[in-house]
Structure prediction request, 190 residues.
Amino acid sequence: MQIHEFQEMMKRLYFHRDSERGVEGTYKWLVDEVEELWEALQGNDKEAAEKEFADVIAWLASLANITGVDLEKAAVNKYPGRCPKCQQSPCQCTF
Amino acid sequence: MQIHEFQEMMKRLYFHRDSERGVEGTYKWLVDEVEELWEALQGNDKEAAEKEFADVIAWLASLANITGVDLEKAAVNKYPGRCPKCQQSPCQCTF
Prediction:
């Protein structure tokens, strides 16, 4: 599934709730999901970790929807197949 | 670009660095990027916000790479076109 399609699906499912909640509330949900991902990674339950990865990308897409950002375009613009700092693939940054 | 393709690109660019840094260090970078996203959203600079959205999905993909998770599969499994809680599209959850 394309990043764009996933973001559109999130919009179809949740835009009415996300836009009511607003940017700050939606960002806080994203932060909560990132924390839950860490908790899941501490355990030895791959399925739980996968669900938290799904939730992080889902809330990131929700936040992009209510801030008018095209997540796929943003991702490909910054990472067009090479490192944005050293311009190499693989990255050859020395820091 | 498919979520899977983006994750593969991140693997090609950064797996050597991500795997050396390890899960905890890579998770910390993800958290930093999430914080930078918030800072960017406070300003009125859409381009800056787009770059931070890109960084969050990039570090999420890096973390998925070093934990052996297929981000696209995880996302589609949890969000197969309907809300995982109420099973509706759009979501009809009442809480």
